């Protein structure tokens, strides 16, 4: 093969590889939708046409927490300073639902007055190492974005928490002004107690080891706890769902059935209430849509 032929073949191979490789990430799509999934492997934002969630009116028993999240989200949408948010606490009490519903409600407010809206971008916990790549994309847009990581927690030998901690407030590049991070977790300090305790046994200075582990939570300016539902809270959630779906069940019968359902599952929460309503609606032949 002559040098010219070899060069021509190499050029064709290079052109083929370039066509096969994905285009560099672009922030242009952020202006076309309100919700996205970050796919780190592909380096792209995938739009979500319909966000799975419930309206704020169905989140009962968490008014104080709701007011805090709404105020922070509203400030951010209006161009003011705001805090990163950590929602932690009991399972099924609406932590992720509160995040999604708050962003949707604030966007509705902003559209009503022709203000700027927020983009909600979900990033999976096991893709946190790609945060710098995502932030590099978001630096190129003026649209304000909330990065949402649901069910955030870390296990032994897991170093991804250091990447997140750096992005929250210690990295040399810093967090872009148009980006906040909202996360939910069942753990108060994001890590199991035995992981923190194990650090004390191997560290030269145990107190410094513990500080390293729990300091991640401190980097969320708003640290909001959601606790298990009381019986009154649980019944309020059930009644709100029943009214929302127009279920024709007398109040006393509804409450009695709801308590029996919760007792059979050994817990009371927004998730249990939602499951009860789904079963009841199906029993009545009423679609949930």
From TrEMBL:
Top-rank taxon, per record: Bacteria
Pfam families membership: DUF815 (PF05673)
Cross-referenced InterPro entries: DUF815, P-loop_NTPase
Residues in the signal sequence: none
Record SUPFAM superfamilies: P-loop containing nucleoside triphosphate hydrolases
PANTHER family: SLR0930 PROTEIN
Name recorded for this polypeptide: AAA family ATPase
Species of provenance: Gluconobacter albidus
């Amino acid at each position: 093969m002559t040098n010219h032929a070899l060069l021509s073949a190499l050029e064709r191979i290079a052109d083929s590889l370039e066509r096969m490789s994905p285009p560099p990430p672009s922030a242009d799509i952020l202006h076309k939708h309100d919700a996205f999934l970050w796919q780190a492997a592909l380096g792209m934002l995938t739009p979500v046409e319909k966000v799975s969630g419930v309206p704020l009116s169905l989140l009962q028993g968490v008014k104080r927490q709701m007011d805090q999240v709404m105020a922070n989200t509203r400030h951010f949408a209006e161009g003011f300073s705001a805090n990163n948010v950590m929602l932690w606490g009991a399972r099924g009490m609406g932590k992720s639902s509160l995040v999604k519903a708050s962003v949707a409600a604030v966007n509705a407010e902003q559209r009503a007055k022709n203000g700027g809206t927020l983009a909600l971008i979900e990033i999976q916990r096991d893709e946190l190492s790609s945060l710098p790549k995502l932030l590099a994309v978001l630096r190129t847009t003026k649209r304000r974005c909330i990065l949402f990581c649901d069910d955030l927690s870390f296990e032994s030998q897991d170093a991804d928490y250091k990447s997140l901690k750096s992005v929250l407030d210690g990295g040399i590049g810093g967090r872009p002004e148009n980006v906040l991070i909202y996360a939910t977790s069942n753990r108060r300090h994001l890590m199991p107690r035995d992981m923190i305790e194990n650090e004390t046994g191997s560290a030269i200075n145990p107190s410094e080891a513990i500080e390293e582990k729990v300091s991640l939570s401190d980097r969320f300016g708003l640290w909001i706890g959601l606790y298990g539902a009381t019986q009154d809270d649980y019944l309020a959630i059930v009644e709100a769902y029943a009214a929302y779906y127009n279920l024709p069940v007398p109040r006393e019968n509804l409450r009695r059935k709801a308590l029996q359902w919760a007792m059979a599952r050994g817990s009371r929460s927004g998730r249990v209430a939602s499951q009860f309503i789904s079963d009841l609606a199906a029993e009545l032949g009423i679609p949930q849509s």
